[in-house]
Amino acid sequence: MKLLKRKSDRIDELAAGAGEGGTSLAADALKRMARSPVAVVGAGVVALFVILSAIAPWIAPKDPFTRYPELRSELTPTNIPGPMPGFLLGSDQNGYDFFSRLLVASQQTLIVGVLATLLGLTVGMIIGGLAGALGGWVDSALMRLVDIMLSLPALLLAISIAALFREGSQWTVIIAVGTVSVPIFARLLRGAMLAQRESDHVLAATALGVRRRTVVFRHMLPNSLGPVIVQATLTLAAAIIEAASLSFLGLGDPSPRRAEWGLMLAQAQRHFEVKPELAFYPAAAIIIVALGFTLLGESMRESLDPKNRR
């Protein structure tokens, strides 16, 4: 038993550093990302977005949910007040401080994007993990379900799911967007685990008689998570755009008191000729944040790719 335990521990060590020549894959990837301007720009945008989202309620110069009399007094069908003392970007179409709502909306956008990505990641990993670990009819049944979901355009599927709910809400958007990302994670994890199944350390553990559950959770799954984590970063960018799209189409929370970039963009379309800034700033924020997550995710993917290692 002691000999078997020593051999099993040795296999664990080989699995952790397989193909790395004693160098941590994560540490090596971080070094290459630090030398990449694209990665630095993406990480900077993401970090700025996360920090602003976290502290937005405290740094907003005005209450984003208060209709100020000095703004409402100048609101007309043909005039929405622009920048004025005390109001950096002026008013929105309802008499709220536009700049403060933009800041607070970043927090709501981040919450929706993160929760939707976590939902898709969790369910996708369960499906992909079961398919990759068990194989056989379980793999076939689960992958056919995934293929059906992948056959539908992502936005169309999200709209269909959101439309099933009686009333739109923030959770409606989270569930719809999260469901759309499930097949991506499932396919990715399943493929990575199938590749790990033929690796030397997994074959050695199996030959030693290590239990299948131990092989899956100690050898196959940990070494398959790298691509999934990278994909989560890219999916977060898509989730922010898709959540904004559903809010824009009126499938999210319709309350004008809720500040969220997609909803602000939808509400601004009726006043575009009067004050185009109401649409420009939320749209620009969505594009910049999605671009930041995309740049960071692509840099992570390239850094973790063994073909790009020097």
Description:
The chain has 310 residues and is mainly α. It has a domain at 102-310: MetI-like fold (Orthogonal Bundle), CATH 1.10.3720.10. Helices cover 71% and strands 0% of the residues. The chain is built from 13 helices and no strands. Helix 3 crosses helix 5, helix 5 packs across helix 11 (225-248) and helix 6 crosses helix 8 (170-197). The two termini are 41 Å apart.
Given the structure, what is the number of helices?
13
Overall residue-averaged pLDDT value: 82
Helices and strands, in order, run as HHHHHHHHHHHHH
- The whole-angstrom Rg is 24 Å
User: How does the helix and strand content classify structurally?
Assistant: mainly alpha
Our measurement of the CA-to-CA distance between the termini, rounded to an integer number of angstroms, reads 41 Å
Helix content: over 70%
**Shape-level CATH architecture of the domain at 102-310:** Orthogonal Bundle
Which regions have little confidence, pLDDT < 50, spanning 5+ residues? 18-22
